[in-house]
Amino acid sequence: MGTLWGGRFQEEASELMQSFNESFSLDKRLWYEDITASIAHITMLGDCEIISKEESELLQQELTKLCEAIGQDPSLLTGNYEDIHSFVEAKMIEACGDAGKKMHTARSRNDQVAVDMKLYVKKSLTELSELAQQMIKVFGAKGEEMADVLMPAYTHLQRAQIVPFSYVLDAYAAMFERDVKKIDQAIELMDESPLGAGALAGTTYEINRQQTASLLGFAGVQHNTLDSVSNRDFIIDALHCCSSLMMHMSRFAEDFIIYSSQEFNFVELSDHFSTGSSMMPQKKNPDALELIRGKAAKVISLLNAMYGTMKGLPLSYNKDMQEDKAIYFEALDTTTACVKILTAVTEELKVNEDRLKETIHEGFLNATELADYLVRKGLPFREAHEIVGEMVVYALDKKTQLHELKLEEMKQFSAAIQEDVYTALHPDTILQQGIKKDMLHSHVKSV
Ligand code: ARG
């Protein structure tokens, strides 16, 4: 392996150490960012007359060529290199000779890897946000499609009150919307270029950090150079965005795994996203959703792994930080796959409207509204609550529902109850009075 530090050493690292130390197999994924950041760096070196204009232009040309070549044929990213930075530099020395050897002037792999990762994280978070917004749209469209369908909602997984089916989707859309905002905030916070920090203490050359920052599309420069090469907060923030998305998707998965069981039978998942059993012929299992729930645990653990990596590190760069790539790529790929799958699962979700129509008349979902009715008739709420509780016991005993009791039966509990109670207990009335416009997240309109 051609290393970047031969002079100080009399012997090569053992093969065991070389393969233990290498990160090329993973960080080759940063090829575009490494080449782009190198182009910005040598452009600046030329403009600041640290290398000649000709050398700068030659390197810019060759780096652009390399970028195009890899774009067309990613299998070019191969060979016995320590990391992507060594690979690109070696290719430039091959192509430009001495000019190639000047590319690393006023730069260290410490600021180089930090800038590469920042560019990659910014780009990948933006793509993840676009996918999440796509998913929110699909939730909205499914909500529109199911606008008239009502269902029981739960606390403690016990029947609580009636809501429109689309209101459940609206709740999840609101969570995902916050995740999209988290991504925007994370990108804004990381939008400073570490390039020019050198190994840790800047460089003796008169470089122009502002120029490389602008060329790379950063809002500004990360000024303290010790901080620039030490900082992996931005990866932790990105992992937090992934974890939050995964946690919300996992809760959705849990809800819909329950809803798709025979016992609930509220929804049916498309065959495209279910699997069968090798032994039990009748089975249709919600594997896509279960995998989302399972993978959420992994992504959240990866956030924890990154915190663990960073919490004890002294200033500034330490090799432990190389692990950030394995952690981030795994979390990003998992989250991206889950957002895509959940979007498709929701798009193809079948809602069992007949079953839902039955369920909203069972389980005392209108008990709270009956108490509210009594309050409107002049009773204090606590008293009304007590009375309705007793009515529930009575109805349970008679194996019936509150709205199925006769008026005379109801009147035994409170003389305030009149004929209009039946309208008050009807699902349509409850919904009109219950879910107000300002209780909707804007994306699912027709609840
Ligand atoms: N492969 C290294 C990483 O990902 C690049 C930086 C190496 N820097 C160093 N001083 N050894 O962290």
From TrEMBL:
- Where does it localize? Cytoplasm
The Gene Ontology biological process terms listed for this entry are: L-arginine biosynthetic process via ornithine
Q: Which PROSITE patterns match?
A: FUMARATE_LYASES (PS00163)
List the GO terms this entry assigns under cellular component, sorted alphabetically: cytosol
InterPro entries documented for this protein: Arg_succ_lyase_C, Argininosuccinate_lyase, Fumarase/histidase_N, Fumarate_lyase_CS, Fumarate_lyase_fam, Fumarate_lyase_N, L-Aspartase-like
The record's similarity note reads: Belongs to the lyase 1 family. Argininosuccinate lyase subfamily.
Question: What's the name of the protein?
Answer: Argininosuccinate lyase
Q: Which organism is it from?
A: Desemzia incerta
